[in-house]
Amino acid sequence: MTPVRALNHAPRRRKHFPVLKVVLIVAGVAPAFVALGDTSEIPGLTRALAVFTWFLSTLPALYYLGRKHSKRRPLPFIETISFIYGLYYALPIALNETNRAWRITVDPHDGYDVPMQLVFFGWFAMMGAYVIATSIVKKRTPPREIPWRPASVTKWATAFLLGGVAVNGLRTFLGGGAGVGGVIQLFVSLQWLGLGLLVVLSRRGELSSSGRTVLIVGFVGAVAVAVSQGNVSPIVLLCVVAGFALWAGRPVIETRWIVAGVVAILFAVSMRGVIRDFRLTAWFGTEQFSQMQRVQLMGRLLQTRIENEGLVATLAGGGAQTAQRSANMDVFADVVRRTPSEVPYWKGQTYLSLVGAAVPRFMWPDKPTKELGQAFGHRYRYLDPSNKSTAINLPITVEFYVNFGSLAVILGMLLVGALYGILDNLLNRPGQSLMLSMIALTLLLPLLLIESDFSLVFGGLPLSGLALWGIYNAMWRSAVGKRDRRTPVHARATRIPNDSVGTDRRPALPAG
């Protein structure tokens, strides 16, 4: 056989259009052209700073996609954090979207100047501390790897996903009692873990037809439970889990997945437009609804809205509601304007709930219920005095300011960036196993919710980490025989190779 003939039988390397890179580049530079093409009451320098900050927030993701696969972290965690930060604080000003938040009026002539400067320096503080933390923190020995056996992983993932959906569905009947909240949240985390593992198996071509059925049924069931509870955020988080798992399983995102993501976003946006009517009927009405009836109610409300106003108007209404709920820059600007001249500094009181965050409620039955969303809304008069049910998010960055002022924003973002760096270095390292990556995704996912307060984002890490560590060890004991447990890892003849490459013998594909 000649060398030429041998080459003819070599597998061809498929080329993929770098769709993610193109999307990020367009998203990063488009606001600059928008700003040049319209007029605004926002001062030019402030808007230019917003455009630049937004562009900076997209750069970590572009850098990530440009690195070799062997040197990249399996989950683009800090890259997503940076993107969300820019999305909340810089992009609205860059696009001249002001005064979207409910009951907040900011003077665009000077109301966004100081907040935008704090956002800019806050981004540098966060990313700088992240880089320093990842370079200083020593890389510990990786945990014992769980052999990647598709049949065994499928069984665990099925139990996690379906069990999590079932327990989360019980929330409707158990109510919002504080005594069960932590337990339900644990099962929600297991639901994410099961979904992530099944998506990875499917992405790698290792999921059987029955496993694919479980994946579809479990995902649809999880979405239905979220719909029945009148919540949009859980649906978004489920889609984020699926997206990260797709990437971890095979780091190429084709155009069809971008389209699927856009469809999911449009569904969430349209649902946001009717969520208020849904809650008035299902939560505060006289009629009692089962979970299935609540799902049907949401469907009827959406159908009626589309029939009466049209699809475009329905999406526009949902977009307005989404912008109102996500207008963190308006909240930040209003807080800067009114603190401390009108509302005194909180002086660290919002962080008191961190004291008992790591203590389970069964060990502290009288642990105070966290009601910071109510306290913040009433303190700044965003809520009527009689409103005892609505919660207003207090974003991490805004929380630093309401407690101690401008300097606290910079120092606080340094702390947050350092925490991100430590966690990313411990849980999300290049070459680690797929199983560990999905555990890391489950633990790191709540940290993406930067529109929430510090204790809500970081307070659950100790208990969640302990629970997931126990689950990881249980899975390892189940997968590894007693004889292998007593044998040093380096001496096992049948040791499974690193499953970041795994048994997938297809040629590596260019990322992006």
Structural commentary:
- The chain is mostly helical.
- It has a domain at 150-405 and 443-482.
- 64% of the residues lie in helices and 0% in strands.
- It has helices at 3-8, 19-37, 44-66, 77-89, 91-94, 113-136, 150-169, 171-174, 178-203, 209-228, 233-249, 255-282, 291-309, 311-325, 328-338, 372-379, 396-404, 406-427, 434-444, 454-458, 461-479, 482-486.
- Helix 4 packs antiparallel against helix 6 (113-136) and helix 12 (255-282) packs across helix 14 (311-325).
- The two termini are 37 Å apart.
- Mean pLDDT is 82; it is low at 1-14, 176-180 and 487-512.
Bin the helical content: 55-70%
State Rg: 24 Å
Distance between the termini: 37 Å
| Proportion of beta-strand residues | under 5%
pLDDT averaged residue by residue: 82
Major β-sheet annotation: none
* Total count of helical runs of at least 4 residues: 22
Structural class: mainly alpha
Shape: globular
Number of β-strand runs: 0
Uncertain segments are 1-14, 176-180, 487-512
Query: What is the H/E order?
Result: HHHHHHHHHHHHHHHHHHHHHH
Relevant terms:
512 residues; mainly alpha; 0% strand; disordered N terminus
Produce a short descriptive summary:
The chain is mainly alpha-helical and 512 residues long. The chain has a domain at 150-405 and 443-482.
